[in-house]
Amino acid sequence: MKNKFWIAFSAIEQTDSSFIHRLYNYFGDIEEAFNANSRDLEQIDGLSVRRAETFLRERDKIDPDKALYGVESRGINYVTLEDDNYPKMLKQISDPPAVLYYRGELFDCNLEKTLAIVGSRKSSYHAKDAVRKITGELAGTDICIVSGLAAGIDTTAHEAAMDNNLKTIGVIASGFDFIYPSSNKRLYERIEKGKGAVVTEYYPTFQPLKFRFPQRNRIVSGLSYGTLVAEASLRSGALITANLCLEQGRELMCVPGLISNPNTEGIYKLLKNGATLVTQSDDILEALNWEVKPAEQLKMDLKDVSEAEEKILSALEVEEKGFDEIATITKLDTVDLLTNLTTMELKGIIKQVTGDRYKRV
Fold first, then answer.
1. Predicted local confidence at residue 360, as pLDDT
2. Which single residue of 59, 70, 87, 152 could bond 121 by disulfide (Cβ 3.0 to 4.6 Å)?
3. How far apart are CA 221 and CA 67, in angstroms?
4. What's 181's DSSP letter?
5. How far apart are CA 287 and CA 292, in angstroms?
6. Any idea which architecture 302-360 has in CATH?
7. Vertex 149: Cα angle to 93 and 123 (nearest 5)
8. How does DSSP assign 87-121, residue by residue?
9. Rounded CA separation 323/82 (Å)
10. What is the CATH number of domain 1-70?
11. CATH topology assigned to domain 104-288
12. Which pLDDT does position 317 carry in this prediction?
């Protein structure tokens, strides 16, 4: 069984996927690569003595059977670079993970229509709202949303996907023994229980160390046909993912934001350099040349809207408004307005946001 040698390789913290690729490509067999001796490694052009010695030292601490048991006993699924069902888009990048561990239903996701959505951890309300709007316009289609399960835009992207009956893939920067951030525990569970999959290249015991997050980003963009950046400062992980997207030859798209927000500086830099500007889902479909299955979401029939409700919807068409603004525009008295706002909230066609302000859903 060759799988245990792939997993044994990935259980060595001092190696990375590029090192594993190098040995596998040289020997043509993962078992031979894992069991190579120092003389064998000396024959590989450009392989440093230090890296070879480190591998041999750490390799001797690993029992492949125990490494495999450590994965299977935790109920973790995996796919190796040698497997026919390894995700096609990810396999095309220059440094694909040697092993992709996952929980959930990875192959229930449509890996032919994957869209990454990334952005700032300290994201603005505007950016989160834009992600919800655009994702909502894709509701019920066969598109799969990919992100990094971090705080901020990542969390919003995953939640918006599931709320709109879309599959989602979360890529984490640690093994499955860790949940980071811990506040996303329920989000992990929700994705794993039928909404998609959580994936990682890291053996279960590997911690979420700082250097692993940029490495994780290449998988987010690598799994995806295009990447949508919702918010990014000039020094951010989202910008790293954007650059990886371009290096991988994928479509890069950006949501414009407030020019006064420092987290949009990276966005406008990307737009000036040719990224596609996105304000609605049709922009994404056009950029990726996708035709999607029709949304299965229920759409409100305007025939069922009362005259008063129609006035309120019209007042909220462009942006959210406060109670007094709505009253001035609609000319409804206080009691009627309160009654209609409550009814419309219950119907799910508007919602109350900050203070007494309302917006269309």
1. 83
2. 152
3. 28
4. S
5. 13
6. Orthogonal Bundle (1.10)
7. 105
8. -HHHHTSSS--SEEEEEE-GGGS-TTSEEEEE--S
9. 61
10. 1.10.150
11. Rossmann fold (3.40.50)
12. 82
Written as one string, the DSSP assignment of 11-55 is T-TT--HHHHHHHHHHHSSHHHHHT--HHHHHTSTT--HHHHHHH
What are the structure tokens assigned to 27, written together? 């020997």
SS (H, E, C) 267-336: HHHHHHCCCEECCCHHHHHHHHCCCCCCCCCCCCCHHHCCHHHHHHHHHCCCCCEEHHHHHHHHCCCHHH
**What's the half-sphere exposure (Cβ side, CA atoms, 13 Å) at 175?**
18
Give the ranges where 118-229 is alpha helix by DSSP (H).
Answer: 125-136, 153-163, 185-190, 212-222
Digit-coded pLDDT (tens) for 14-68: 999 999 999 999 999 999 999 999 999 999 999 999 999 999 999 999 999 999 9
CB atoms under 10 Å from CB of 22, counted, come to: 18
Adjacency order of strands within the sheet including 276-277: 77-80, 99-104, 196-200, 167-171, 144-147, 114-118, 226-229, 251-254, 276-277
What is the model's pLDDT at position 361? 72
- The H or E element containing residue 254 is strand 251-254
Q: What is the pLDDT of residue 259?
A: 85
* Domains of the chain, residue spans: 1-70, 104-288, 302-360
Q: Residue 228: enclosing H or E segment and its boundaries?
A: strand 226-229
Residue in 59, 104, 76, 106 with CA at minimum distance from that of residue 219? 106
pLDDT at residue 194 in the model: 85
Measured CA to CA, the distance from residue 81 to residue 98 in angstroms comes to 5
How far apart CA 201 and CA 98 sit, in angstroms, is 7
